[in-house]
Amino acid sequence: MVSTRWLLLTLIVFILPVCILFVRKRYSFWTRQGIPTVETRFPLGHIQHSSHLMVDLYRQLKGRHPFGGIFRFLEPVVLVTDPKMVRNVIVRDFRYFYDRGGYANPAHDLLSGSLLNGEGKQWATIRQASVGLFSTVKLKAMHPAMVQMVDRFRMALNAKLTQECEVKIDLKEWMSRLTVDIISCVLLGFEANSLNDREGGLYGRIGRQTFLVPKLWKLFLMASFRPLAKAIGLRLFSPDLCELFRRMTHDIVAYRKEHSDPQQNDLVDRLFNLTKPDEGGRRLTESEIAANVYAFLAAGYETTSTTVSYCLLELAKQPDLQERARKCAMDTCEKYGTLTYESDMPYIDQCLNETLRKYPPGINIVRVVTEDYAVSGAQVVLRKGTQVVVPVYAIHHDEEYYPEPERFDPDRFTKEACGARTPYTFLAYGEGPKMCVAHRMGRMQVRLMLAMLLCSYRFEWCPETQVEQSNAHTVIRMRDGLLVKVSQL
Questions:
Q1: What backbone torsions phi and psi does residue 67 show, to the nearest 5 degrees?
Q2: Which terminal residue of the chain, N or C, has fewer Cβ atoms less than 10 Å from its own Cβ?
């Protein structure tokens, strides 16, 4: 017994100093490279997840170098603070920053194996197959179906308004239901029934399980000990959510195998065509189809519903801006007879761009150095495997580019203001080869939704709405929903 205690004490005496020296050397990494950094605390570092807003870090490091050095737990991370380096990372020198570095463990976590986490040839294959869905011809064909879905939304809301002159609704909840129905219809070819089902249809089954920040210990292992995390089967998504999409995709694919004519040529068809072996023998599995169905649905409904919700919330706070946006939409309807794909609505676009600036759907753009990279204008080489973060939210709230950044001002996005602004300081959908593949569809959808709703309803601010962001999600969400008063015009 005594010998065991002495052995443990001896191990502690020798191992503890080694660990302390390791951590100290690790946290001196950027200082030894001559890169600006800020004080680090063990074991969390500066950030634990890429959903951190980064505003304070960005402000402390900006102007001292094209980038600053921070840590995610024990891992060195590049925080880009200069727009020219933003351009280099995501556009000009893209070949050095090819991967996103997301945690993927499809053997244990089916939904993690999607386009969002795909690397190399897998990413290129899926993107090439899906990009044709968002051509001008395809988008024009989708437009009538989207109009029909928004009409259904108006019918559901009007049913509530027949009993009262005005009602309070949670904008995020209602917009999420609508966008899940739209995406399910135009991209996946089935009815999600989120608007009419009392339990929320498909949205009711997935809405509260998406974009959750994993527990801290999981994040630590996924970031600093990824092989171990994969070996023990750590997962980002719940087994129930994975099983839901596995079963749903299996049923859709099985139905289409039996009813192959005519093809719908939607996302499912395009992914299903990739199950046939290519020249190299690589083919997509049904599990990979399920992962990408989830990725397109979840990312699509979250970005669209968030943008429209926050835009309407801001317009509810400023009735004069709301009236100006409504007039823009109504003038367009009068000019064209209806809202069409080609409808020109400049002030609606300004309102949406300002919303995307203030509440960007992607808080940060994350890349990984795929080849050693010599930073232009600096005596620094970023080594392969280093994570690089472009802090979109922080850049969008930088007073140098957007004075009074917390003020909602659509006139920041007039043609003249956009022309005068520093390039690569508005990154709502990303830029470069990995720019959001569905950004044109997303843009069409939010324009249509916002314009049709403003032509039918008036939105008023609710004093009880608490504008407090949730810390439980990897995207911008309010902790207690987005309540507004709605009345018919």
A1: -150, 165
A2: N
Residues 6+ apart with CB under 8 A from 255: none
In a domain, 19, yes or no: no
Let me know if 306 is exposed, middle or buried by CB neighbors in 10 A (0-12, 13-18, 19+). buried
The pTM of the full predicted model, rounded to 2 decimals, is: 0.92
The least confident of 141-150, 204-213, 294-303 is 204-213
The span from the CA of 65 to the CA of 400, in Å, is 16
pLDDT (tens digit per residue) in 136-147: 999 999 999 999
Q: Does 185 carry a binding-site annotation?
A: no
> Would you state the structure tokens that stand for residue 430, as one six-digit string?
């990303």
What is the rounded CA–CA span in Å between residue 396 and residue 358?
A: 7
CATH of the domain at 210: 1.10.630.10
> Does residue 5 form part of some domain?
no
234, 87 Cβ separation under 8 angstroms: no
480: left (phi over 0), alpha (psi -120 to 50) or beta: alpha
Query: Among residues 130, 368, 361, which one has the least CA distance to residue 266?
Result: 130
**What phi and psi values does residue 310 have, to the nearest 5 degrees?**
-70, -35
Bridge partners for 99 per DSSP: 368
Tokens standing for residue 479: 């902790």
Contacts of 324 (CB under 8 A, 6+ apart): 347
Residue 4: inside a domain:
no
